Amino acid sequence: WLHSASINPLRAAADRLGFAYDRGFSFGKRALFAGRRRLTDDQVQQVDTALEDAFEALADSLVEDRHGGGQDVAVSEMVDQSGPWYPLFENIFSLMTSGTPATVSALDFARARDTFEDYPVADGLGALVLANARQVTVQTRSAVRLVDWRGRSVALETDQGRLKAKAVIITVSTGVLGVKAIRFTPALPSAIQSAIAACPLGHYEKVVLHLREPLAAALMGLPPCLTAFTRDRAGRIGNPVSYLIRPFGRPLVVAEIAGPVLQDLMREGPAALVEHAVTGLEGALGLKLRRQIEASLVTDWRGDPLIRGAYSFAQPGRAHERQRLAAPIGGRIFLAGEAVSLEHFASCHGAHMSGIAAAKKALAAIKG
Questions:
Q1: What are the distances in angstroms from CA 317 to CA 75, 86, 112, 340, 368?
Q2: Which of 122, 146, 233, 294 is at a distance of 20 to 30 A from 109, taking alpha carbons?
């Protein structure tokens, strides 16, 4: 998606390059299924009210911050967990942050600037990013192993040899930096290392199901978003899964899975994620899908050594540390990426904007 589309610089790139996107998409256009029963309009209104109350409670942490101190506590401490619809909030929150209410700082979350304009790109956001950078010379398969900043310049040890520069911008994730996949000589300052640890990457993966016709056509009557969950006899909600139904009219269903349930599934492997996605959709629609699946695809952002997770969140009590990531290191090293953005973290445009800011700082340092 082009998140926060009206303030997203990548939207202008999409217009310039002729990439189509859906201005009419809304996560609010969704169906909710408890087992095979679709929630009534009254029940959906109850869910919406519960979600609004929860997110308003989180916004209060930012208001307090402006008056000093702030509520840099776990989201779970700010939100009423006793309501019947809390598991749905927990699911949505995990998709938004890749963390959980217990692991994410309410203050950090409240600082995010979100206009709630989410426009999916027909040919994919990744394709847009690549097209926007087609004038840039990029050397692939040249992983940096060591950054030596002992002298006046910076030396990089890569798989393709040694490079020297006056300054370097490092855009890998906090997941990669956190496991020290790139070594630094001397080591990064302790404050920077602490900030990296304070803003880890969470868990979020997608399962794409390519459905055969005519089943795919039968789903056309559904809203673009669907959330399926179970309810036991006591009314307790379990196993919520969110789906995108036939994006851009294609015979696809995309399941989004995050939070603790994903961590358990990942231990079992990709097949478990596919089974989880299929079971949830079958339970909601009352259809046998397994023989109607042409192919499936499971992302593995957590397992990718160049990413090592979804996107960043600040841990409770450590929201103030995110801003340290934007500070120049020795006047020669500059970090960029979504984790560096104070208002647009967990987004592609946040990473894009932080890269531009880092480049300006690096150029100023060189000229100075």
A1: 11, 23, 16, 17, 36
A2: 122
Q: Which of 71, 128, 76 is nearest to 97 (CA)?
A: 76
CB 322 within 8 A of CB 310: no
Specify the pLDDT at position 63: 61
Given CA atoms 137, 345, 32, 301 in this order, what sign does their dihedral have? positive
User: Which H helix or E strand runs over 357?
Assistant: helix 348-367
Statement: residue 67 has pLDDT above 70: no
Helical segments of 83-200, H only: 86-97, 106-110, 125-132, 174-178, 190-198
Structure tokens at 326: 């934007």
> Average of pLDDT values for 267-294?
92
Residue 289, pLDDT above cutoff 90:
no
Q: Is the pLDDT of residue 164 over 90?
A: yes
Q: Work out the angle at residue 211's Cα, subtended by the Cα atoms of residues 205 and 214, and round it to the nearest 5 degrees.
A: 155
Query: What does DSSP assign to residue 187?
Result: P
Spatial contact of 155 and 137, defined as CB atoms under 8 Å apart: no
Which residues partner with 230 through β-bridges?
A: 238
Residue type, 228: A
Q: Do 193 and 209 touch, CB atoms closer than 8 A?
A: no
Mean per-residue pLDDT, 304-328: 96
Residue 278 amino acid letter = V
Strands 204-211 and 161-165: unpaired
Place of tokens 């994620």: 273
How far apart are the C-alpha atoms of 304 and 180, rounded to whole Å? 15
Average pLDDT over residues 346-366: 97
d(CA 55, CA 292): 38
**Tally of CA atoms within 13 A in the half-sphere of 45 that contains its CB:** 3
